[in-house]
Amino acid sequence: MATEDTSPAPDQPVPDAEACALPSHANTTALEAFKKSDSEWKELLTADQYRVMREHGTEPSFRNAFWNNKDKGLYLCAGCKSPLFASGEKYNSGTGWPSFWDTIAPENVGRTVDTSFGMTRVEVHCSRCGGHLGHVFEDGPRPTNLRYCINSASLEFVPKADLEERHLSAFAKHAK
């Protein structure tokens, strides 16, 4: 069960000590909160997305949409469309889930201590809508040594060719 929320308030910068070795541009404010009722989330999300994002579920490894996606583009929050990750920071961790060594907008990814299943981990969630994304571990590749292990159900993929149309061209440099 998730306990202490360590993410900053939406109007507060991410403190350097909590930036988990992320780049200095992490000290920017998050997007305005995106709130919905449970019934609204159930209408907006698929059953699998709701289970993962709103009930903190986990989808099966190697049997999810993006674990082996090699296309160039961005990964948005499936709930509120906040930009989270990109193909340029994605790598094959061997876990069967999409894994990233960094975020493209650190202020959009919050962290919460998760003590479920008799272990202590760091859950990551969308800072804007609170949707559960997965977990972050300190066993990833350089330069961050982080592994964001993310559920595909929490993500929407936008191919690089569609970034301008979706007003996401500011993040195109990450979609390599």
TrEMBL record:
Catalytic activity entry: L-methionyl-[protein] + [thioredoxin]-disulfide + H2O = L-methionyl-(R)-S-oxide-[protein] + [thioredoxin]-dithiol
Keywords assigned: Metal-binding, Oxidoreductase, Zinc
GO cellular component: cytoplasm
Top enzyme class: oxidoreductase
MF term (GO), any: peptide-methionine (R)-S-oxide reductase activity
Cofactor: Zn(2+)
Database matches in InterPro entries: Met_Sox_Rdtase_MsrB (IPR028427), Met_Sox_Rdtase_MsrB_dom (IPR002579), Mss4-like_sf (IPR011057)
EC number: 1.8.4.12
Keyword hit for Zinc: yes
A single BP term in Gene Ontology: protein repair
Key word Transcription present: no
Domain MsrB, first and last residues per copy: 38-160
Record family assignment: Belongs to the MsrB Met sulfoxide reductase family.
Descriptive protein name: peptide-methionine (R)-S-oxide reductase
Organism per entry: Pelagicoccus mobilis
